Amino acid sequence: MAPRKRPRRAEVDTDRLKGSNEPSHGGQTSVSNRLRPLHIFSFLFVVVFFLAVSIAFYWSSPSHRIAMVPVLSVQERGLVKSDVVYREILDENARVPLNRSFRYFSNPVLAYITPWNSRGYEVAKEFTSKFTHLSPVWYELKSQGKKLFLDGRHNVDMAWMLELKKSRNALVLPRVVLEAFPADLLLKKKQWSKATDIILKECKELEYDGIVLESWSRWAHYGVLHDPDMRRMALEFIKHVGLALHSLNSIRNSSHHLELIYVIPAPRSQNLAEYDFGPQDLHQIADVVDGFSLMTYDFSGPQNPGPVAPLSWIHSSLQLLLGADNQDGPPRHASKIFLGINLYGSDFVVTGGSGMEAIIGRDYLSKLEMHRAVLRWDEKSAEHFFIYSQHNLQRAVFYPTLKSISVRLDAARSWGAGLSLWEIGQDHIYGRR
User: Fold this and answer.
1) Of 102, 106, 73, 100, nearest to 412 (Cα)?
2) Nearest Cα residue to 132 out of 156, 166, 107, 150
3) What is the pLDDT of residues 74-91, one digit of tens each?
4) Helices 311-322 and 402-415, axial angle in degrees (round to 10)
5) Taking the domains of the chain in order of start, what are their residue ranges?
6) What is the pTM of this model?
7) Which of 48, 103, 110, 202 has fewest C-beta within 10 Å?
8) Which architecture characterizes domain 105-295 according to CATH?
């Protein structure tokens, strides 16, 4: 539609000006007096125009919009609910908060970033203030004969590191996976020193704030945790690394020592297996470990399709590790737990076969739209899922929603725990406020 033409301003009535009865000088009408009404009109027009422009600029400025126009939270907008419909997710998934620095969750938050997902780096820069710890998945400590070496520096993104240093908000602790053969590493204390020296050297040179160390699952795979002496040596090695890191101060923050966060799998049941990381293990090393990244996800698998991280399992894992029901406040060491939150989902075959695939945000959105999904809320697990059919197979998709994440944040708060997010950048959690 063509824009309407503005009406022309009415012409000034010059005859009315000519008929002025004001006195004249020297028998002639004063030009200044004759034009005074026009001057007043012009002056008023300029003033009104200036005020209009000023008001328009004031109301349109970003700072004023943020200050005067309330930004409703997802709770206030009614998006955190069990009866969510797929169209809401499709419409809301790209929304991001105007306030990118305020933290609604006050406990520590660890976010993992992987080199195969570049979006994670962007999210970390854009929302740095919302995280306390950032862990890029870069390194493996490997062995070749008696030689230990750190593989992964080729993954390091120095430009990204420099951007983060400008904000000085979140600590950067790259993940280091111990892939060295455990018998060679754990039984020889000279290897302990070599391993810690390699780690400390990398922290100094690249100015890290510490590391996230992962080894327990690999040690369980090798079977070394079944032997009491090997288990004791494994825990002593972790303490050795922690003390070595604590002996150095962060280059970015000279008043703070380098940190060690240790990755631990969640117990599968209340009856601890020999390879499970249990409460005695936690208490033995808690004084020299700054945090524990608890992997409370991947509960279900191809042979037992279901929720990714049932809420009852989360609570039972915390209760087992911390040894309290948290009725009288957070138990000891609860503040060191980073409760694992999955930002991915699972697509299971439930009838007609077996199988599972991990899905990320774009996959989830595609499946929602393609199948016009009817989401169901499972009260027991506190997760949303939907069922669809494809190639004569019935499949079930579990993926985190605002409701499921909100419930888990409440659980972490009730225990006094933090969060560990695997991994940022792959999610599409809609209406993020």
Assistant:
1) 106
2) 107
3) 888 899 999 999 999 999
4) 20
5) 105-295
6) 0.81
7) 48
8) Alpha-Beta Barrel (3.20)
